[in-house]
Specification:
Number of domains: 2
Structural class: alpha/beta
CATH superfamily of the largest domain: Divalent-metal-dependent TIM barrel enzymes
Low-confidence stretches: none
CATH architecture of the largest domain: Alpha-Beta Barrel
Number of helices: 9
Mean pLDDT: 93
Helix content: 40-55%
Shape: globular
CATH topology of the largest domain: TIM Barrel
Strand order of the largest sheet: 1-2-3-4-5-6-9
Order of helices and strands: HEHEHHEHEEHHEEEHEH
CATH class of the largest domain: Alpha Beta
Strand content: 15-25%
Largest sheet: 7 strands, parallel
Length: about 220
């Protein structure tokens, strides 16, 4: 629980969990452990923003492994349901994922768990849009404009920047980052995004320093 304590001390109000993290895998958490995790978060005043379940695209598209992929997603949805019907973040390939989408809509629809798909497919009544700011920048797009277009279909947002060298960095770092944090914040507010933007520290050089600085900058924008 050291990580939860750090999140609490740093000032974050929510935490994003991952099914690939030892100790947080759905198969490792029985009902009692899931209740305990919720209580540990509540005791610190931390909400659970959602769960990452990024199944590799090749497992989704391959007939030999698609059942395993569906099973992993089903277990993630079950965990999300037990943790308060939090959002499950996924990234399905645009081609070859039809069977997985159909099964996921059935599973998530029954449990009432929101889904955020970062793979780029159009949203449905069950599977919403996920937007990774660095990925949008990398493709030459504008994260704020994409968030505005997504509107209420947007169910997941990754708050991370991309340097001029193409490296994922904390937003606002003096490394040539391109993300307009204020424009993105405004677009999310106008569009009615009700979740927590996730400061995605994967690939950052110093994740904890980057997370602390990102929170400070984001909160500072909210006071303008």
């Amino acid at each position: 629980m050291e990580s939860l304590e750090w999140v609490h001390r740093t000032g974050y109000r929510a935490v994003q969990l991952g099914t690939g993290i030892p100790g947080l895998r759905p198969t490792e958490l029985d009902r009692s452990a899931r209740r305990g995790l919720r209580l540990e978060c509540e005791r610190r005043g931390i909400a659970i923003a959602g769960i990452d379940c990024f199944v590799p695209a090749e497992r989704v598209a391959d007939r030999a492994t698609v059942d395993r992929a569906i099973g992993a997603l089903e277990r993630a949805v079950g965990l999300a349901s037990d943790l308060g019907r939090v959002t499950v973040s996924i990234s399905l390939p645009l081609e070859g994922a039809e069977e997985v989408r159909v099964r996921l809509e059935e599973i998530a629809g029954r449990s009432g768990v929101p889904i955020a798909d970062y793979g780029g497919a159009p949203p449905t009544a069950i599977i919403g849009l996920g937007m990774d700011a660095a990925a949008v920048l990398g493709s030459g797009g504008d994260p704020a404009a994409q968030a505005a277009r997504g509107g209420r279909s947007l169910t997941g947002v990754r708050l991370t920047d991309l340097s001029t060298a193409g490296i994922r960095t904390p937003p606002g770092e003096s490394t040539g980052g391109r993300l307009d944090m204020f424009a993105l914040m405004a677009a999310l507010a106008v569009g009615g995004f009700s979740g927590y933007p996730v400061a995605d520290a994967r690939h950052w050089v110093d994740p904890r320093l980057g997370l602390a600085n990102t929170l400070q900058r984001w909160n500072g924008l909210g006071k303008q």
